[in-house]
From TrEMBL:
<dbReference type="GO" id="GO:0042597">
    <property type="term" value="C:periplasmic space"/>
</dbReference>
<dbReference type="Pfam" id="PF04234">
    <property type="entry name" value="CopC"/>
</dbReference>
<dbReference type="InterPro" id="IPR014755">
    <property type="entry name" value="Cu-Rt/internalin_Ig-like"/>
</dbReference>
<feature type="domain" description="CopC">
    <location>
        <begin position="35"/>
        <end position="125"/>
    </location>
</feature>
<dbReference type="InterPro" id="IPR014756">
    <property type="entry name" value="Ig_E-set"/>
</dbReference>
<dbReference type="GO" id="GO:0005507">
    <property type="term" value="F:copper ion binding"/>
</dbReference>
<keyword id="KW-0472">Membrane</keyword>
<protein>
    <recommendedName>
        <fullName>CopC domain-containing protein</fullName>
    </recommendedName>
</protein>
<feature type="transmembrane region" description="Helical">
    <location>
        <begin position="152"/>
        <end position="171"/>
    </location>
</feature>
<dbReference type="GO" id="GO:0046688">
    <property type="term" value="P:response to copper ion"/>
</dbReference>
<keyword id="KW-0812">Transmembrane</keyword>
<keyword id="KW-0186">Copper</keyword>
<keyword id="KW-1133">Transmembrane helix</keyword>
<keyword id="KW-0732">Signal</keyword>
<dbReference type="InterPro" id="IPR007348">
    <property type="entry name" value="CopC_dom"/>
</dbReference>
Amino acid sequence: MTTRTALRLAGCIVLTVVAGAALLSPTAAWARRPAVLSTAPADGAALSTPPDRIELSMSGTPDPALSHVSVRDGGGAEVAGGDLTAAGHVLRRPVTVRGAGDFTVTYHVVLSNGEEAVGQLSFSVGTGAPPVARPANAAPETHQHGIDPLNAVLLLVDGAVVFGVLLLLISRPGPRSQARREPAAE
């Protein structure tokens, strides 16, 4: 292998590593993360009357078939009923709140373009006070999808194939190299 080929190979390796790191970094993954613009009831609201639905206004169009919204009372019982519906950028879930107390809404919203928003909010009904705050370091109880093992393996195989093709293209002698190797006919 010549010095020039070795430099090309090293350059391709560095470029591949940098591109892979940029694509797989958490910053790239979260840069396009959709936002919940507003909620009804608002996070931390102290309501005197119970709501009949939960509404999440999103930065994109939610897909109710792929989204999940759970509403639980202080004892952990589900108070949401009915199906999720979407109208424009608003996702709605009917609730039946009976009695006073604190309620927690946990959501995993998938937008029509495949982006996802995951989070939690809380409100109180009939207590005259905002819901009890959870500790700042407590992670919200959210519904999240794990990594699909088949797709992860296929992604790794794809990367290995691309890397192998790059190596073959770089190490393969070009037409000029072969012309130099052939002795001149005398």
